[in-house]
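Schema walk-through. Below, the input block comes first and the output block second. Nothing else is stored per chain. Lengths vary across the set, and this one has 64 residues.
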Amino acid sequence: MGQICHHFSWTLDYLLWEVDWRIVQRMLIDAPSYESEEEKKEKKKPVINLSEQTSEDFLQQLLK
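--- output ---
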């Protein structure tokens, strides 16, 4: 919260009582962030392969 107050030159009281919290949440979500190469390697996300598949094909894969 201190970073938001500093960036916009707001007081803490103004942030807590005058600004709608939903707007503050959107501001935090949209804030830029930085990840080092090491952090990116640690957070490898599983790859999801999308393909055309019928419900029967899906059930057959589950039953294997």
